[in-house]
Amino acid sequence: MTDMPPLILWFRRDLRLADNPMLAEAAQTGCPLLPVFVLDPETESLGAAARWRLGEALVAFSQALAAKGLRLHLARGAAGEVLERLARATGASGLWWGRLYDAPAVARDSAVKARLRGLGIEAKSFPGHLLHEPFGIQTSGGGGYRVFTPFWNAIRARDPGPARPGPARLRGWDGDPGAGERLADWRLGQAMRRGAAVVARHALIGETAARDRLHDFLHGPVADYPARRDRLDRRACSGLSEPLAWGEIGPREIWHAARSVMEGAQDPGVDSGSDSGAAAFLRQLGWRDFAWHLLYHFPQMGARNWRAEWDAFPWRGDSAEAEAWRRGRTGEPVVDAAMRELYATGRMHNRARMIVASYLTKHLLTDWRLGLDWFADCLTDWDPAANALNWQWVAGSGPDAAPFFRIFNPQSQAQKFDPEGRYRDHWLKGVGADDFYAAAPLRWRLDPAAPPPVPLIGLAEGRARALAAWNAGKA
Ligand SMILES: Cc1cc2nc3c(=O)[nH]c(=O)nc-3n(C[C@H](O)[C@H](O)[C@H](O)COP(=O)(O)OP(=O)(O)OC[C@H]3O[C@@H](n4cnc5c(N)ncnc54)[C@H](O)[C@@H]3O)c2cc1C
């Protein structure tokens, strides 16, 4: 029988046991715990691949909790209402969660906090999604950073705090929270249709898989990371963005693991500014924090040009060319290979993301928000901050962005980063092509035997058109 009211733990993008400050502190209270996940309207609006991937994350996390004797309670509806009802029904002593920093989440969480406190229920939030809280890092003049290098200089030697292992024991609440929802009824993979089965073969799901990947990466590929991370035809990167996006692994755990590898290898390390091995890897992790730092300080970053002068730029809206880009039918082999990789795996190599983003925004002169939305629909590692920062970075409209006149030539990029054409051939002719056709919607009416598409625009012509638009805007 239940003798104490539960402490409700509201999980969102922190679906892990280890390096979870909220869970670590909750375990120490000795209170009986009631973990809950709410499918609220904000979560319902996720893109197709992200919704599917969330469902997989919830399966894995429920199992991890069950192994500790806890049952993940599922609820659906507006978070404030659902959580108030649950807190009242269970007589909860408190409701805790791990912080998120995008504007819709901040607004929702502030409202939940006010509502519960109004009822006399403790409402408390915790860090854990980032290395450093976005409001905890400030320039000497106050306010947030706008440029990566000084931001990185500010955090690279700073201890992000401990990454505690998953609690050895957790005490589940044995009361009745009322009928929960069934995950299967949410049909989170529905919009993926037949693509889900294909993307599933490429996914890295759950805390254990993420930790194993981290270990393998840090004891192998990391040594060659600086030299090979841009190679499209090599597996030289960690692949951790996907579990990071769902909080199946925490950034502090990655940070400390990489630092101990550096110490073991007597790597001069991030503090020295060295760009070797684990240090270069941690610098990329710094970009993730930077993206969230910017999104927190500029909540419109995912919807509006960071620099207002770009509002007058003659971006093109949706078009047949943009649709060809989505379907991997631009006629530029490396662009099409990358767009197929995205559709069939839910991921894309970082260098390829830059190439396709540059092609869309410059050669096709198309608004970066169109690309941002397609990525949001297709990526299993979708992250609102990283997606927005990087799209604006490539388009030239963002803070600390690449200048617009830096227009990637897809062919020279391919020569440099896929010199033997292995990446291209895998996605255009090999096993990858099979995967793509198996995942692609039937309504696209793709014919694997059709000849390759004619390029939408000559590379020199597209470049000249983009520069002319930019020069006209400058004048
Ligand atoms: C147009 C565009 C859109 C992008 N959209 C997303 C997105 O929605 N979600 C996402 O996680 N990343 C996004 N990125 C960043 C980057 O491409 C991915 O983080 C990276 O490919 C993930 O692979 P990895 O885990 O093997 O990275 P690694 O090279 O192993 O890097 C380690 C970690 O550092 C972080 N990181 C690396 N590069 C970046 C970067 N440029 N910006 C922010 N964080 C970075 C990631 O968390 C990554 O897991 C985007 C990049 C571009 C150019």
For the largest beta-sheet, the strand count, sense and barrel status come to: 5 strands, parallel
* The named CATH superfamily of the largest domain: DNA Cyclobutane Dipyrimidine Photolyase, subunit A, domain 3
Bound molecules: flavin-adenine dinucleotide
Number of individual domains: 3
Question: Helical percent range?
Answer: 40-55%
Summarize the helix and strand pattern as letters. EHEHHEHEHEHHHHHHHHHHHHHHHHH
**What is the overall pLDDT average?**
95
Distance between the termini: 76 Å
- How is the largest sheet built, in terms of strand order? 3-2-1-4-5
The first-level CATH class name of the largest domain: Mainly Alpha
Uncertain runs are none
Beta content: 5-15%
Round the Cα radius of gyration to an integer and report it: 23 Å
| Number of E-state strands | 5
Number of H/I helices: 22
Q: What overall geometry do the principal axes of the alpha carbons give?
A: globular
CATH domain fold name of the largest domain: DNA Cyclobutane Dipyrimidine Photolyase, subunit A, domain 3
CATH architecture type of the largest domain: Orthogonal Bundle
Structural class: mainly alpha
Task: Supply database-style keywords.
Rossmann fold; DNA Cyclobutane Dipyrimidine Photolyase, subunit A, domain 3; mainly alpha; globular; Serine Threonine Protein Phosphatase 5, Tetratricopeptide repeat; five-stranded parallel sheet; single chain; 5% strand
